[in-house]
Amino acid sequence: MMNDHIRFDADQDALLLLDQRYLPLREEWFACRNTDDVIYALQTMVVRGAPAIGVTAAFGCYLASREVRGKTDWRIALKELLELIRTARPTAVNLRWAVERMEALWRANEVVELDHLASLWLDEAKRMQLEDEAINRAMGRHGAELLSDGDRVMTHCNAGALATAGFGTAVGVIYAAVEQGKRISVVANETRPFLQGARLTAYELHRSGVEVTVACDNATGLLMKKGLVDKVVVGADRIAANGDVANKIGTYSVALLAKAHGVPFYVAAPMSTFDLDCPDGAHIPIEERPAREVTHPTGESQITPLGVQVYNFAFDVTPAELVAGIVTEKGVLRPPYTEAIQRMFGK
Ligand code: MRU
């Protein structure tokens, strides 16, 4: 499984990202040398997926600290850059989580020299990267218990190694079941308009030798009706305190169809994806992305008539009552989620 697609290069003092815009056709690297590069990478989806953007943001804080060197008011300038990183994309809570962790480290240390802060942050970003993979493996161990030998598992978007520092959340659950010797095949929904399922989930599962079939997003009803899907496992960008789940657009429709066909619908997400300040899904901001992603799916010719409007909401919210279980690094949460989430956070 991939775990080297987010690399810090000490010689170049740069963060290198495997550019997910071009996969699986080309493996190109994008170098982030400053905050502008990091924000560009986040917003144009060079890197995407909630935990992966969290780790990228953490390295972004380090790069920001390098950028303000030589400024007398570096503290103010640095806070401004951190705010830009925190808000680069609105739905996944992991950006905020990563920046807040860096800010907490800053507050906890009597930092006089900027260089000292930079070195604390670089170490912390590397720690977060390693932790993320370990968390995903723990999540995989818990979640694999939900899958049986022979299961055909549907997933939506890409919640695999590429969406994290390594191993993946929802796809990590599948990898862990396969590692346990279970025969699992995967239906990867193509996930319009950015095609994370067709391009990224299919790419990494195929590379790892896991049987994968790509399906059009609008095939879910038929596939379930035909009995071709035993379980659904998806990732999450933000989980509210009541268990409502924001994930890639289309997830809600999959969850409704799963309910209608008696297919268990599971979510896998680390604790960093929970937002206890957010009471329910109605409070989760939904990112709207450029119309061009929909009108120009290959990046070149326009497929829609000129002048026609486009909806490009990037996420939707699945109500907690449609979710059979939430897999975390601490175990599998079951309804009622408000209580289960409070208990997990020791409240
Ligand atoms: O817009 P994206 O590609 O960043 O959206 C990603 C998703 O919706 C994933 O399913 C989610 O982040 C879970 S990642 C482990």
UniProtKB/TrEMBL annotation:
Q: Name one GO molecular function term.
A: S-methyl-5-thioribose-1-phosphate isomerase activity
Q: Does the keyword GTP-binding apply?
A: no
Q: Which reaction does it catalyse?
A: 5-(methylsulfanyl)-alpha-D-ribose 1-phosphate = 5-(methylsulfanyl)-D-ribulose 1-phosphate
Q: What is its EC number?
A: 5.3.1.23
SUPFAM superfamilies assigned to the protein according to its UniProt record, in alphabetical order? NagB/RpiA/CoA transferase-like
Origin organism lineage = Bacteria, Pseudomonadati, Thermodesulfobacteriota, Desulfovibrionia, Desulfovibrionales
Q: Check the record and name the Pfam families matching this protein.
A: IF-2B (PF01008)
Describe its function: Catalyzes the interconversion of methylthioribose-1-phosphate (MTR-1-P) into methylthioribulose-1-phosphate (MTRu-1-P).
The organism encoding this protein is Desulfocurvibacter africanus subsp. africanus str. Walvis Bay
Q: What is this protein called?
A: Methylthioribose-1-phosphate isomerase
Family the entry assigns: Belongs to the EIF-2B alpha/beta/delta subunits family. MtnA subfamily.
Q: Does the keyword Isomerase apply?
A: yes
Q: Which UniProt keywords apply?
A: Amino-acid biosynthesis, Isomerase, Methionine biosynthesis
Q: Which residues bind substrate?
A: R48, G49, A50, R89, Q196, N247, K248
> What are its GO biological-process terms?
L-methionine salvage from methylthioadenosine
The pathway that the record names for this protein is:
Amino-acid biosynthesis; L-methionine biosynthesis via salvage pathway; L-methionine from S-methyl-5-thio-alpha-D-ribose 1-phosphate: step 1/6
Site residues (Transition state stabilizer), renumbered to this chain: C157
| Matching InterPro entries | IF-2B-related, IF-M1Pi, IF_2B-like_C, Initiation_fac_2B_a/b/d, M1Pi_N, NagB/RpiA_transferase-like
* NCBIfam families recorded: eIF-2B_rel, PRK05720.1, salvage_mtnA
Q: Which residues form the active site?
A: D237
